[in-house]
Write a structure and sequence with these properties.
The complex is a heterodimer of chains A (about 240) and B (about 240). Helices cover about 85% and strands about 0% of the residues of chain A. Chain A has about 240 residues and is mostly helical. Chain A has one domain: MetI-like fold (Orthogonal Bundle). The longest helix of chain A has about 40 residues. The longest helix of chain B has 18 residues. In chain B, the strands form 2 sheets. Chain B has a 6-stranded mixed β-sheet with strand order 5-6-7-3-8-9, with helices on both faces. The chains are: A mainly alpha (about 240), B alpha/beta (about 240). At the A-B interface, helix 7 and helix 8 of A face strand 5 and helix 3 of B.
């Protein structure tokens, strides 16, 4: 049923797309129809796959590094008042800066290759991971903490046995958000400076008026992002307590 | 378990500048059940939380002393209306939570005996969400017994249960906690009449000690004197509210 409704929604979208192309009679280099894009995709499948692989590597590394950093930061913040006073405003400030504006700087610092894109993905997901996990850690049900206190629990074991498990659903929702954001970060990085990746391919195709290839690359990115989200969703199902 | 001491709590409590309760003295007899009966908002839970050494939001002026002169708050076990079972842990893990939190090795034989005593042996590896309300409260009781503390503080632990389950739990708890110094905070006159070896009614005007029925606790639900006591307690609560 879920697959059927997804299929129906896809067909519906394709229908509207084709309808606009037919009704307006826009030329191929402005708005190619779905059939043209599909054909271009198939002809360029190896080219697209090669670039998609690069982007995928950037995103997955970014996701892993960003999650680890976010989890460590949230734990430090939850554990120490000093960390909260010193670091929390900085964290909000970095989020207030448009990450897009940092992209040229990161390319300058980290070069044209993989790491500037990984850094972009990390930057964009670091805050949602940190803040969702931190919120979870700070919202432990008061009754659990009372009980732990009457049991003479140490701060450390309360964190390990109660606060962290109680915060895992929040972390899971942060990770699910991150799975959607991370590809955006990587692609922005590629736009600003790179010679590889789906973002680069989209710019290249656009510059040469190959709008059909641009669409093919973009849709590939979209499908990749959805798949990533589904994988992360499944991987975090136990953490989120979906079956609980 | 070490010998259960008696407790005396005397003093007053304020929240900001408003008086929560005026100076009062409450004695808990060693090794006996004291029921503290009162409506909501009179500070009876605050009294219990003060003994447990928990945050109350109130400023307490006074002292809490044990008859043996030793510190109190590290000798209490605590059970609340919410069973406070960790939803991600199994029944067995929940029962042995205290040892794990203190970094000790839990006594697994003892844990299994207590689980069996609470008739939960078929549910050892289940998560709390798979249990009924009564079963969950039995797990909480097993966890309380596992702590093996001489002083047990019960904060309306049975009030969310249906009538039959509540009566069953009262019997079970009365039997399981024999010999310990128990403070049961409750708003149910029937519960106080069934379980109290001493009964104290708490109102805005302070504490009023009441005579418990003569039969040994837990008293039968249809014991005449218990029902009379229940009625008298309820009358006392209502008069005072008027």
């Amino acid at each position: 049923m879920r697959y059927l409704s997804a299929l129906a929604a896809t067909l519906f979208a394709l229908l509207i797309w084709q309808g606009i192309v037919t009704l307006t009679g826009l030329p191929k280099f402005i708005l190619p129809g779905p059939a043209v894009v599909a054909e271009t995709w198939w002809q360029n499948r190896w080219l697209i796959a090669e670039h998609a692989w690069i982007t995928a590597v950037e995103v997955v590394i970014g996701l892993a590094v960003g999650t680890v950093l976010g989890v460590i930061t949230a734990l430090q913040l939850a554990n120490s008042r000093a960390a909260r006073v010193l670091v929390q405003p900085m964290l909000v400030f970095t989020q207030a800066l448009p990450v897009f504006a940092l992209a040229p700087l990161l390319t300058l610092w980290l070069g044209y290759g993989l790491w500037s894109k990984v850094a972009m993905a990390v930057l964009i997901i670091y805050f949602p991971i940190t803040s969702s996990f931190f919120d979870g850690l700070m919202r432990t049900p008061a009754g659990f903490l009372d009980l732990a206190r009457t049991m003479q629990a140490s701060k450390r074991s309360v964190l390990w046995y109660i606060r962290i498990p109680a915060a895992l659903p929040s972390l899971a929702s942060g990770m699910r958000l991150a799975a959607v954001y991370a590809p955006i970060g990587a692609v922005i990085g590629e736009w600003v400076g790179s010679s590889q990746g789906l973002g680069y391919l989209m710019l290249l195709a656009n510059g040469r008026a190959k709008t059909d290839l641009m669409f093919a690359a973009m849709l590939t990115l979209g499908v990749f992002s959805i798949l990533l989200h589904m994988i992360v969703r499944r991987a975090t199902a136990r953490m989120a307590g979906d079956g609980r | 378990m070490t010998r259960a001491p008696g407790l005396t709590i005397s003093g007053s409590a304020k929240i900001d500048d408003a008086t929560l309760f005026a100076p009062l003295t409450l004695n808990l007899d060693a090794g006996a059940w004291t029921c503290l009966l009162g409506g909501s908002g009179v500070g009876k839970t605050t009294v219990l939380r003060l003994i447990a050494g928990l945050e109350t939001g109130a400023k307490f002026l006074g002292q809490i002393t044990a008859s043996d002169g030793l510190p109190v708050s590290d000798r209490v076990a605590y059970m609340a209306q919410d069973d406070l079972l960790l939803p991600w842990a199994t029944v067995a893990q929940n029962v042995s939570l205290g040892a794990r939190l203190r970094g000790e090795k839990p006594d697994l034989d003892r844990r299994d005996r207590l689980i069996k005593r609470m008739r939960l042996q078929d549910h050892m590896t289940k998560k709390p969400s798979e249990l009924s309300g009564g079963q969950r409260q039995r797990v909480a009781l097993a966890r309380t017994l596992m702590e093996d503390r001489p002083i047990v503080l019960l904060d309306e632990p049975f009030s969310a249960l249906d009538a039959r389950t509540r009566a069953d739990m009262q019997d079970l708890a009365a039997e399981a906690l024999v010999g310990r110094t128990v403070l049961l905070v409750t708003h149910d006159p029937g519960e106080a009449a069934r379980l109290g070896q001493s009964i104290v009614v708490m109102t805005e005007h302070g504490l009023t000690p009441c005579d418990p029925p003569h039969a040994p606790a837990p008293r039968s639900v249809d014991d005449l004197e218990t029902l009379e006591t229940q009625g008298a307690l309820l009358r006392l609560l209502r008069e005072d509210a008027a």
